């Protein structure tokens, strides 16, 4: 049964090594910039630059995955588009070396099967979320973040354009209903051209793999504007991105199901199949959505969202870190 889901993008630049020093804080960890600037806004020095948008996108993505762990899943499945469908479990590794970036995720030393790009970035986000939770757990209780689900710091999305199954390393412990529980991870590659009906069936199957399943859907929205004049309007791409953002904000599987696969190539969308797998997994579930971030650095649209069960939305400590 699906208990929580998150949607994150998978550009290689989400991983700090791809940005060089611009992607790291003084300790070499991912950072969101000294002032946590909101992407897309105009400040005293002009529009927020793309590297600041990417830092904010990274921060929101890690926070979304921290929220997944806080939901107490027994199985966390990362779903992402690829050339063909495949299941990866146990010892897996992902690398950005094909993109000229010396970065890896997962069990880099295992020699196991290599993950496609979308799942490599997903594995990196999981690693970062686990590290973040471990750092927080090592803090004295009085220093840990506090707050409730209504805290505005986690309820307001960052807008970047026009407002608009087998055990393996990397499993860990999450906050289940009865306390800390062990969890395991699985990676599911989905053929990018998979028809909606097949995506829905796959999502239903994944949600049934364990009593408590969390799903991380990796996918990018339209990249067509990146092929034109920088900053120029593209009504078709903007309508598509706005529809996906609205569906994610409302936790509405039906609107994701309605996405037309014929637009994948036309609008250069890399997330449709993974989003429709999520729709299948969430069918019949009572979920609340939060759009965390909508940004378009380099004119490629990226969305970050969280879905949680309406009766048990994690509080600020889980969602806002």
Tell me what you see in this structure.
- With 321 residues, the protein is α/β, with parallel strands linked by helices.
- Helices cover 31% and strands 22% of the residues.
- The chain has one domain: LigB-like (Protocatechuate 4,5-dioxygenase, Chain B), CATH 3.40.830.
- It has helices spanning 50-70, 117-137, 152-155, 196-207, 235-250, 253-257, 263-266, 272-282, 316-319, and strands at 2-8, 42-43, 46-47, 75-82, 86-89, 93-95, 104-106, 158-159, 172-176, 179-191, 213-218, 287-295, 302-309.
- Strands 1, 4, 5, 8, 9, 10, 11, 12 and 13 form a nine-stranded mixed sheet that branches. It has a two-stranded antiparallel ribbon with strand order 2-3. The protein has a two-stranded antiparallel sheet with strand order 6-7.
- The radius of gyration is 18 Å and the shape is globular.
- Residues 32-47, 147-170 and 312-321 have low confidence and may be disordered.
Please specify the SSE layout and strand pairing:
Elements: E1 2-8, E2 42-43, E3 46-47, H1 50-70, E4 75-82, E5 86-89, E6 93-95, E7 104-106, H2 117-137, H3 152-155, E8 158-159, E9 172-176, E10 179-191, H4 196-207, E11 213-218, H5 235-250, H6 253-257, H7 263-266, H8 272-282, E12 287-295, E13 302-309, H9 316-319
Parallel strand pairs: 1-11, 4-10, 4-11, 8-12
Antiparallel strand pairs: 1-13, 2-3, 5-10, 6-7, 9-10, 12-13
